[in-house]
User: What shape does this take?
Amino acid sequence: MPLSWDDDTGQSNIDFLFGLAVFLMAFLYVFTFIPGLFVPYQASAVDLSSVAYKTGAILVEDPGWYIYTVDGVEMGDPAWEDQPIYRLARIGLADDKLTPNVLSLDKVRALDDMSNYDLIRDKIGLSGTLTYNFSLGLVMNDTMTGRRVELLNITPAIKGDSVEYMERNVMVDTGRQLFVDCYSPAMPNAALHVRLNEMPADGRNVTVRVFNASGPGTIKSVLWQIDPVLDTPVPLIYRNQFTVRKNGLEVPVLPAAFGPGDVVEVVVYGEEISDLGMEYLWIVSDTSVFPVTEISYYNDPAFPLRKVCYPGVFKVEVWANEGI
Amino acid sequence: MRAFDDRGQIYTIEGFASALIMVGVLLFIFQSISIVTPQTEKSADMKLGQIASDTLICVDRTTEDCGSDLKAAVAMWNGHAATHSDDVSPGEPDIGRLDSQIRGMLSGDIAYRVELSYYDGSAMKITPVIIHGVPGDNSVVVSRLVTLNDDDRLSGFWTANNRFPQVIEVRLTCWYL
Assistant: This one.
């Protein structure tokens, strides 16, 4: 086929190059001078899911850390919740490293009490070269009462556009309780005698859980004494110095009746124990339902001091910090 | 040469016009289809796997004062398999307790099944003990090992036929409904 003389489809002439250059410059001009056109597709949003995973893992599986110095030597310890904030190195909510997913209620409360959002962000590792915004939530399912309790809800007023989240199933350790199984105790007694003098004076509440009673009973009063022989037991004032919960709900006024299927928790406040120097407690019922033996709260061979844990869901949300 | 040369069109205002059209097309494409970030599906699987693994960790929680519920349920299991008509192995109260614990930890839109993998004296066997439906697409499996020791309270199933001591794999399969 013969070539046509007026064929103007030659493409590599100067016109085409010049035209393409003008087009590219115009394209780049439009692209850059309309900021935010493609913001949702920017690269910084890509790593959010791994950041959410990392933050959740640190908070749920690590007990945290604080730093103090002894004679100029730097030392550390996981019990950061009892320490001033300036010593805090890293926030973690686990009871200890050996039991991941078991969160300490004390640590959760300490985190909930921290009001400085930027400080929390720093201590959970979200303010490195890139800073992220976050929200933390923990909802506990109190299986005894069937209520859902919101233990943690740290969230800024405004959330970002693309939020990545991570949910972790956890157990919330609500503290230790003395488990007194009253099922057919030998020689039942109307009063439960609990020895406190071996426990460490750490200001924690003393909780005695009475369950599996062999018959109906009624908690009338709780008394304390220092010497079991010389002193007359002194009654504690209800709701000022102790409280009673039946099946997880606080009893408004004593006496509190309970049956074989009920779980009764008698909570004596920790500061009262240390202030008064209580060494023995008497929990008094109107019928003989309690074991007759004296029970050591801290270290009894028959009645264990157990952690009471309820399941919960811990949720971390992160998104890019647009301000920086 | 020709009198009317029409090749010099593109270095006019049309350059800008075409750029605008290109940007418009790009925006149209980005916004009309839902942009799927790479590995979104994997991330959903990872989250489900993490929740399932957390659930097994929580039911297998051992403290110095009380043994793990998962281990107790496995140790007291008497060899009865679950079927599609019996969600939970019949006649196994400990497995029933385990089922309600797992149910309480997983949200309502997650279904699951639990299987035990063990040596039954002559061969490896996999027996389902909790069945809540047939695993759907994108199911995840997590497992945890339970060791039966000398001083554990064991059911008659484990003490018979040289089935003890051994390590049992507990498999939890989860999927979204």
Notes: Strands of chain B lie at 110-119, 124-131, 140-147, 167-176. The helical segments of chain B are 14-32, 40-59, 69-75, 93-105, 156-159. Chain B has a mean pLDDT of 82.
